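Before a colleague's protein record goes any further, I have to sign it off. Thanks in advance; the entry in question is below:
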Amino acid sequence: MKKKIVILGATGTVGSKISDILLNEGNQVTVFARHSDKLQKFKNKGAQVITGDVKDVNTLIDAFKNADSAFIILPDNVKAENTRAYQRQVTSNYIEAIEKSGIKYIVNMSSLGSHMHEGNGIMGGTGEQEVRLNQLKDVNVLHIRSAYFMENFLRTIGLVKSKGINGTAADGDHAIPMVATQDVAKVAAAHLSNLDFTGKSVHAVMGPRDYTYREFTNIIGKAIGNPELPYVQIPIDQAKQVFLGNGFSEDFVDNLLGMAVAIQSGMMNYQKRDKSTTTLTTAEEFVNEIYLPIYNS
């Protein structure tokens, strides 16, 4: 039986893919995002469209009413002067909307590293959100703890093209789970439509195996015809100035870079890898199918 499902962040990297999967399966999907122009393609497929902000509790309540399940995500606010306060407010809005709407199944987009509540940068907010959602009574909540998105490497295409290097603030030789967002979306969509979870639980989505940033860069280099493409760990102060120059708030940047630095501590390597947490798309497949066409465009 097809379900009534709400997707927050429907224009995002994961939310858009979940929406496509669920619409293609014939579910009644409501897509929720701040910019209506980006939702038109879902409307064309039969989705109900709600343009709104996660700060508007009444709009969230209306979206959740009579829905079988909902996908929620803690959106970034690059202008936030106090990132944790912003994250707490969004979580409070979600909790109020869930309680007042009566919805019973929530799939929450979290992250590896959210088992820690400090020392993990911006993931401290997702960790706190997990704990707070777990206090909900008579609501089934599943936390998707996703690995590092392979799509994050798309953000450094400009650096690869202009400087002939790939780099982030993270250590290049510490292997972590990395995953293609299409695989995360498949897992989340299945839970949203099957309603196959009860109580409060975690489903880690960890990709096919662990990769270092240097190894992933090498795979990119081979694909673009530059097998010697180096990975460079960018100094924190230098990375911070780049983000500040793009208009990000200092507190948001500190949280973002705090996560990058914490990767070396092993915070992304906490979850157990087994059949249920391992997904199929390899780095080579991602680079050839997703990265390369964008790089060449």
About this structure: Residues 186 and 288 are 20 Å apart (CA to CA). The chain has a mean pLDDT of 96. The longest strand covers residues 105-111.
